[in-house]
Write a structure and sequence with these properties.
Elements lengths: L2 H17 L9 E2 L5 E2 L5 H4 L2 H4 L22 E7 L5 H10 L4 E5 L5 H7 L10 E3 L5 H11 L12 E4 L1 H8 L1 E2 L3 H15 L7 E6 L1 H4 L5 H21 L4 H4 L3 E7 L3 H21 L10 E6 L11 H16 L3 E3 L12 H17 L13 H23 L3 H7 L1 H18 L33 E2 L11 H9 L9 E5 L3 H17 L4 E2 L7 H11 L3 E5 L2 H17 L4 E5 L14 E3 L5 H12 L2
Parallel strand pairs: 3-4, 3-11, 4-5, 6-8, 8-9, 9-10, 10-11, 13-14, 13-15, 15-16, 16-17
Antiparallel strand pairs: 1-2, 7-12
Helix pairs in contact: 5-6, 8-10, 10-12, 10-15, 12-13, 12-15, 13-14, 20-21
Amino acid sequence: MSHGESDYESWETAASSALKEKGLEQLTTKTFDAIERFPLYTRERNKSRRREDGLPGESSFARGSRASGNLLGWEVRQAHFATRAGVNDHILADLENGATAITLKGAPDSAEQLRTVLQGVYFDLAPVHLGSGSSIAQINALLEVCGDEEGATELLRNNLGLDPIGRLARTGHSVLPLDQEVQQCAEMAAALGEPFPRVVPISVDGSTWANSGASDSQELGAVLSEGVLWARALMESGIDINDISSKLEFTLSAGPDQFLTTAKIRAARVCWARIVSACGGDPSASPLFIHAETSQSMMTKTDPWVNMLRTTAACFASAVGGADAITVAPFDSVAGLSNEIGLRLARNTQLILQEETKLSSVIDPAGGSWYIEELTDQVALSSWKIFQELESLGGVGNALQSGQLQDSIAETRERRHEGLAVRSTPLTGTSEFPNLDEDQLIREPFPEASEPDGDYRCEPLPNFRWSVPFEQMREATDLSSQQPLLFLANLGDMSTHTARSTFAKNLFEAGGIRVASNDGFETATDCAEAFSASGCRIACICSSNQMYSELGAEVARQLRSAGARHIYLAGSPDIGESLNGEIDDFVYLGCNVLDALAPIHQLLAR
């Protein structure tokens, strides 16, 4: 037995002892893609031979596309709506204060209008990218404006945002059949090669899938299939396989799970290198450019300041994974158009990580972590399997138009919804530790979305923001928010009921139910009298199991007599067997919070 194995066994023995009655296997978790995550990773148990001969910029490219890593820093992007009033001032403020690139959403078709939006921007220093799904007219307008600076076209590094697949997935419509749109885009990419050699025409946007509820492997699998579709189309248009990667930009979502985000970005390079090699190309000839964008799905309207923590973790994970460009969503971006504070904090999140923490000064910060190395391998394998399944269906386009891709993502979305409902996926400030007295952010509304063009060709993917069910419950109780809605029937002294009363208060307030609390009651009569005086119609009994067996049934009966329309008990349903059917519902760790709170909202609606 090796020294490492002996050390692992010693740790395993100590960990099992510390867990007491719980088994060590309870520390093993699974992702939505059934990837197991173990409590400890070591060289001996998780050795990855592939990484032994792979330096940054070599071999599988898991450790980065370049030997220098991100020593010069990554591209700091900020997104803006072109139709927003004063957008030029916002863009210039970003570029003057640290942003190095701009993504323009809803760009005008007119070059004259675009010049007004981008007045004062030096395109050779700060590339202006178009949002994915841009039109040919928008692209022509941008190229015309960029061409105003004579002799600088070879320096331009714009991403033109051609993404007919993503646009079809989001809207369900397209002007032409998908294969014709792809061919049209590929021909345009080939035509731009000589006058604009560094411009990236094609956007492969994984956030389209991620923001509809897809898992990390589903997102990456769809991105790989879309990449292969473009590789075929671009080669048919006369572009060499070794130049294909320079015509594509992969956008991957960065979520709150920093390890999965880092592993997904690294796995994307591994899988793409394998695809290029399989097509007869040299992956090192034209490295893949990866843009990471913090997930919109994880952002919340309630307690939006917590969004800064989510996006910081996501940005950190993206940088550790070696993303070439990062966009951080402002903390207030769900409420509407972000104000100066939101934009500044989003920009400074990147600048602090890049400059003050010196994160970009370390080549492959994740290298040597046996956990991340193993997770990278597992995400690559899982994504490759999904990629192969999509290819067997004729590619991502066919899978989308047949509805099979939507069905697959819907299954994951339902599992995500269940995890959110039982709070195994907690949302701090929303499903956990809510504050019903917080001030709501008031922001300018987003520009109205234009109607999708073209014929209906498939079911569009929905936007799935995780916190919406809880936010809807909060909004439903706004009219009653100044009055207590639920009475905590705390039995015994504070040491007896505090654990469960605190749990219950947190759970009910997550659904917008304002709670009337107290120090506790020694008799059923005192509890019922206090309930009657509170004006509440709903109660939740909170105490110890012993107190439930002694007073629970009597308290429930007296609460009912005092006018309680619905009675909860804080504890598992097993406890209620001794209460003679006096309890309507139970709230406990792992219960479905949305289902548990539904009866209250039905009462409020009457």
